[in-house]
């Protein structure tokens, strides 16, 4: 029996190929999660020993005008996955987000603190979390943040692209969080699946974010520093960068309970160096 993974070409799904090479990966063509019944059929057909959900609707601004679709993919589908896993008594590892929090204050949030998403994407992800917790299945809901890798869409690639035509950029300096390498998320998700098979009492909600916490402006500066690109980053307040979706200011997450899985917060600056090498921006 192998592990079944929803997602194939996304940032985290791509990296899972490294740690779970024998797993079955389902792309959108094999299982379109906008029809949540499809994931029930897939799990019953494959009869895996665990399920990892690395698929999601991740277009934060677009979700404001497509909340229904985002909620099917991020809410209803993971709920159906969890109910099916409960029926088969197999664990589900699911990836969620810092955007389930409202971002008030400046303390690092614990996994059991109150959620209150400020945008449609966050609300859709919270529906999925609640559905999984209510299902009774053995699970790890891993909340992560600010994911980057050498493939797919992410802030690192956006900054590198902008640097080709700009020598200064305005970047928000008052949203603080943990940039997280997709590779580390994939390692952790696979480790959690195996650990839950061995010991279901580890079921629960966990935080997994890269360290140290930084603003998007700090993140941008480090990208340009490592890439050797001379782009001036001007810190601006969120109010000066209007977007369709509101974003939380404080995305700090307390990750201490990762010790249940003998995992620690990954160092995002070191991982950034690897990603820049993979992109052949540096040697
Ligand atoms: N990106 C980020 O900054 C963050 C992401 N997360 C969470 O981490 C997880 C992984 O994110 P990441 O790897 O960055 O996401 P990506 O956007 O890179 O990939 C999303 C994946 O979901 C798949 N997908 C989208 N719509 C559907 C659908 N209707 N049916 C089936 N599959 C679909 C995509 O498939 P296809 O290639 O066919 O489009 C793709 O493989 C998600 O749960 C996300 O919410 C949490 C915090 C931050
Ligand atoms: C391109 C650009 C963005 N920004 C800001 C906008 C935003 O506040 C921040 C990051 O922009 P992005 O569009 O990459 O961010 P966003 O897509 O909101 O990233 C989020 O994605 C989802 C899926 C998550 O789950 C979150 O953890 C988080 O990673 O930077 C600037 O200030 N200047 C710029 O030139
Ligand atoms: Mg984005």
TrEMBL record:
Keywords annotated in UniProt: NADP, Oxidoreductase
Domain of life: Bacteria
Cofactor binding mode and count: Binds 1 Mg(2+) ion per monomer.
A Pfam entry, by short name: RmlD_sub_bind
GO MF entries: dTDP-4-dehydrorhamnose reductase activity
Catalysed conversion reaction: dTDP-beta-L-rhamnose + NADP(+) = dTDP-4-dehydro-beta-L-rhamnose + NADPH + H(+)
Pathways involved: Carbohydrate biosynthesis; dTDP-L-rhamnose biosynthesis
InterPro entries in UniProt: dTDP_dehydrorham_reduct, NAD(P)-bd_dom_sf, RmlD-like-bd
Domain RmlD-like substrate binding: 1-280
Coiled coil: none
Gene Ontology cellular component terms for the protein in this record: cytosol
EC number: 1.1.1.133
Cofactor(s) annotated in UniProt: Mg(2+)
GO biological process, one term: dTDP-rhamnose biosynthetic process
Family note: Belongs to the dTDP-4-dehydrorhamnose reductase family.
Function per UniProt: Catalyzes the reduction of dTDP-6-deoxy-L-lyxo-4-hexulose to yield dTDP-L-rhamnose.
Protein name per Swiss-Prot or TrEMBL: dTDP-4-dehydrorhamnose reductase
């Amino acid at each position: 029996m192998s592990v079944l993974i929803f997602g194939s070409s996304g940032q985290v799904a791509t990296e899972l190929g490294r740690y779970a090479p024998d797993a079955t990966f389902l792309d959108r063509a094999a299982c379109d999660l906008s029809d949540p019944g499809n994931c029930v059929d897939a799990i019953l057909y494959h009869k895996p020993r665990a399920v990892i959900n690395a698929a999601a609707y991740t277009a934060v601004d677009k979700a404001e005008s497509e909340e229904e679709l985002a909620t099917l993919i991020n809410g209803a589908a993971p709920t159906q996955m969890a109910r099916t896993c409960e029926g088969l008594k197999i664990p589900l590892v699911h990836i969620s987000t810092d955007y389930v929090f409202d971002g008030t204050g400046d303390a690092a949030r614990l996994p059991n603190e109150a959620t209150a998403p400020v945008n449609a994407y966050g609300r859709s992800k919270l529906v999925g979390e609640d559905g999984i917790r209510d299902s009774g299945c053995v699970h790890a809901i891993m909340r992560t943040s600010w994911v980057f890798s050498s493939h797919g869409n992410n802030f690192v690639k956006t900054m590198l692209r902008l640097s080709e035509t700009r020598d200064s950029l305005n970047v928000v300096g008052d949203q603080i969080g943990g940039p997280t390498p997709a590779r580390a998320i994939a390692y952790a998700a696979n480790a959690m699946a195996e650990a839950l098979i061995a010991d279901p009492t580890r079921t629960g909600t966990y935080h997994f974010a890269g360290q140290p916490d930084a603003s998007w402006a700090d993140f941008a500066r480090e990208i340009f520093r490592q890439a050797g690109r001379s782009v001036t980053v001007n810190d601006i307040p969120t109010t000066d960068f209007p977007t369709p979706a509101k974003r939380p200011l404080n995305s700090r997450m307390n990750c201490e309970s990762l010790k249940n899985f003998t995992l620690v917060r990954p160092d995002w600056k070191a991982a950034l160096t690897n990603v820049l090498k993979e992109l052949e921006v540096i040697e």
